[in-house]
Amino acid sequence: MKKDIKSIIAFLLATLLFSACSSVKTPPSEQTLLAEETKQIIDNPISLDDQFLELSKSIPGFAGIYHDENGELKVLSATNGFTTQSTEDVSAKLSAMFGEQILYEQVDADVLEKALETQSLDSITVKDALISYEMVNYSFAELVAWRQQLNGIWEMADVNQVDIDEKNNRLSISVAAQKSVEQVSNYIRTQGIPDNAFMVDVQEGGEAGLSLRNNYPSNVGGLQLEFNTSSVCTLGFNARLGSTNGFVTNAHCGAQQGVVTPTIYRQGGNQIGREMREATMWTCGANRCRWADVAFARYDTGEAFELGGIAYTYHNSNARTEAAASASDLEVRDFERHGLPYRYKIIAGVNPVVGERVYKTGRTTGRTRGNVTATCVDIRQNGTNIVNRCQTRASYFARGGDSGSPVYKFSYYSNTGWRVELKGINWSQGGANIFSPISNVNAALGTTLLVTRPATSRTVYDGSGGGSPDFRQLTVAHTDNQVTIDIRFNRASDLANAGHNVYLYGTYRDTINFSRSNFSLRRDNDSNGHFETNLTSGSVTQLNSTTLRIQFRSSYLPDIHTKRVWAYSQTSRDRIPNSGHLQMQ
Predict the structure, then answer these.
(1) How far apart are CA 487 and CA 543, in angstroms?
(2) What interhelical angle do 48-56 and 87-98 show, nearest 10?
(3) How far apart (Å, rounded) are the C-alpha atoms in residues 515 and 99?
(4) DSSP H stretches of helix in 336-488
(5) Residue 435 in contact with residue 424, Cβ under 8 Å?
(6) Neighbours of 453 (CB within 10 A)
(7) Which of 165, 167, 177 is nearest to 201 (CA)?
(8) Sequence-separated (6 or more) residues with CB below 8 Å from residue 498
(9) Which of 174, 376, 508, 569 has the least C-beta neighbours within 10 A?
(10) C-beta of residue 348 within 8 angstroms of C-beta of residue 421
(11) φ and ψ of 37, to 5 deg
(12) Coil, strand, or helix at residue 168?
C-alpha cells in the first residue's frame, strides 16, 4: 500500500476534525435515517507499518524504531544508510512523521505516577531521548513483502497471530499448539523466507473479556456499561460520528458481532444509548476479518457526556495478584474537579510504537499500565473465526469487563506541556493485552471521529461612557491547549492605565492581573481573596489600538470550561459584565 507523506500527515491531522452532514431539501424518512446510521463501512487505516514504509523512502534501509527497556529510542537500518545522512536529518524525519514527543525520553513510571497523584505534572523535567542507530539484517520493506507472501497462512486453523516484529527484525507467527510449529515453519520456508527472518511460537489468540461502576451525571471513558441484562463492559471514549453524539466500546460488547442489533446500553443502571454502527467484517479465506473490535453507540436525547473525558483513578498496582480490585482502586478521584490533564484526553494522530508506556482504565481493574510489545499484529479472537487485523499488544493488565477500555499515553509537548494521547481501545483480558489502535477504530467505523472537546468562545459587551479606563468587550476562548482572553477598551488612551483584573471563578478561584505589557495568573487556594499562588506570567499582545490579548496554556485552568468570568478595573471600578458574569459552560 503506497501513500505519500502529505496524505499520511493530512490523515493524522484529520483526527481533530469531523465532517458536517450535508443539507437536503426533503427530510429523509425514519427508515432511510436508520439505514444510513447503521450501515457498515470498510476503510483502510494508516497503520504504523504504512508509516514505516513511508520513512523507508527517505531513510536508506530503514527497518523500524522502538523504545528499549532503558527508554532509549532505537532506530534500525539494514544498510549503512546512517553514514550518508546526518542523525539530525533522521530525527527530523521521525519528528515530522510521529510528532516531536517521539524524541523525548520516557519519564520513569513511578515518577510519573507520583506527579499524577499530586497533580504536579508540570514539575517534571523532560529530557531529549538518547537515540541509538543499529544495523540489522533486513529492511522493513523486505519484511513487509514477506508478510504479504503469507496471506494464505490463515487457512491453517491453528494460526493465531502474524506480525512484523520490528524489535527483533523478523516475522513473528503464533500458533495454538506445539504440534503445529513445524508444519507452519515448513510452509513459511516454501515461500522462500530465510530461517532467521521468522519465528514460530505457541501463543493464544485474543480472549474477548466480558465480566468506576456507579452511575455518574456525565458519561466519560472508563465507566461501567451494562447490556444484555447481566453483561458488563467498559465505556471506551466519547465521540461524534458526523453530527451524532455517542461513545465507542467493543463490538463484542453487544448482542451480536458484525450486526447492528441495536444493543441498548446502561450506565449505573440507567439507559444512556443504543448501538448505531459496528466495524464491518469481510471474508478472508475461511475467516472473517475486521480492522477493530469496535462499535459506536448513539447517546439518548438529553444524556450528559463530555468529549475527551476519561475517569481519573489512581494506578492499580495490585491488579495482577488480586482476584478483584479494591474499592479504592476503582474510586473516581475528584471527578468534577479535574480538567486538563487528568480528565480530558487529547487525541493525537500517532500510532503506538513498541516500548511506549500506555495506560488503560476499565471498570474491573481500574487504571493499569504497561508497555507496547508489538504493533500491527493480526490476531484471532479466541473461539471464533474473527481475525482482527493490525492490532497492538501491550503488557498492561485487564480482566473480564475491561473490554472497551480506553488506552492512552501521557506525552509532553513543548508548546502545551503534558497531554494525554488516545491510543486506542482494549478488547482482551489477561497479562498480555490487545487493543485496536485509533487509526483502525476510525477506519472500521468508516469515518474520522471527533474525540476531543471543540474550541469554546464566549463574548460579552458593555456600552461606552464610563470613566477611563472603560471596558467595551470581553472575549474568552479556549481549546484543550490554550486559553485566549481579549479585552477591548473604548478608547486607545485607556490602554495606558495599569491595574486591571480578569476574575475566573469555578472549582478554583483565579485572577489575571494585567497591564498593557504583561500579565500574571494567580490562584486563591484558601478562598480568602489573597491569590497567593503564582501559576504563570507572560507578555500581553496589543491587537489594535483598543484591544489587548492574554494567552496561556489551558492546563493552568483545568476548570476553564465551567468558569464564571468578568473583568474589573482597579482604577475606574469599571466592570464587564456590569452585573453578573460571563458563564463559560
Answers:
(1) 10
(2) 150
(3) 36
(4) 438-445
(5) yes
(6) 20
(7) 177
(8) 515, 516, 571
(9) 508
(10) yes
(11) -70, -35
(12) coil
Query: Which residue type, as a one-letter code, is found at position 320?
Result: R
pLDDT digits (tens, 9 = 90+) for 296-350: 999 999 998 888 889 989 999 999 999 889 988 998 876 554 444 456 667 676 7
Give the model confidence (pLDDT) of 212-247 as tens digits.
888 888 888 999 999 998 899 999 999 999 999 999
| Confidence at residue 169, expressed as pLDDT on a 0 to 100 scale | 96
- So what's the pLDDT on residue 511? 97
CB-side neighbour CA atoms (13 Å) of 324: 3
* Per-10-residue mean pLDDT, the chain, length 585: 40 32 37 50 79 91 92 88 72 91 91 86 88 92 94 87 94 92 94 95 78 82 92 95 95 93 92 95 92 97 88 92 90 62 65 94 96 95 92 95 95 80 93 91 92 88 82 92 93 87 93 96 90 95 96 87 91 89 89
| Cβ proximity of 559 and 339 under 8 Å | yes
Residue 111, class by beta-carbon neighbours within 10 Å (0-12 exposed, 13-18 middle, 19+ buried)?
exposed
The grid coordinates of residue 300 equal 439518548
Which residues neighbour 18 within 8 Å (Cβ) at sequence distance 6 or greater? 240, 241, 242, 243, 447, 448, 449, 450
Tell which residue, 87, 61, 98, has the closest CA to residue 76.
Answer: 61
Distance of CA 484 to the CA centre of its chain: 24
Measured CA to CA, the distance from residue 373 to residue 376 in angstroms comes to 11
Task: Report the C-alpha gap between 426 and 411 in whole angstroms.
Answer: 19
319, 370 Cβ separation under 8 angstroms: no
- Report DSSP state, residue 118: T
Spell out the residues 6+ positions from residue 485 whose beta carbon is closer than 8 angstroms to its own. Answer: 474, 475, 476, 477, 502, 512, 549, 550, 551
Cell of 191: 515461500
Alpha helices per DSSP H over 264-377: 327-330
- Write down all domains in the chain, each with its CATH number in brackets: 5-155 (no CATH), 219-445 (2.40.10.10), 456-583 (2.60.40)
CA distance 503 to 458: 15
CA-to-CA distance for 155 and 48, rounded, in angstroms?
25
Of the candidates 340, 397, 361, which has an alpha carbon nearest to the alpha carbon of residue 237?
361
- DSSP label of 58: T
**Residue 99 CB coordination number (10 Å):** 17
Instruction: Quote the pTM value.
Output: 0.78
- Facing residues of 246 across strands? 239, 298
The set of cell numbers assigned to 403 is: 473490554
CA distance 233 to 265: 10
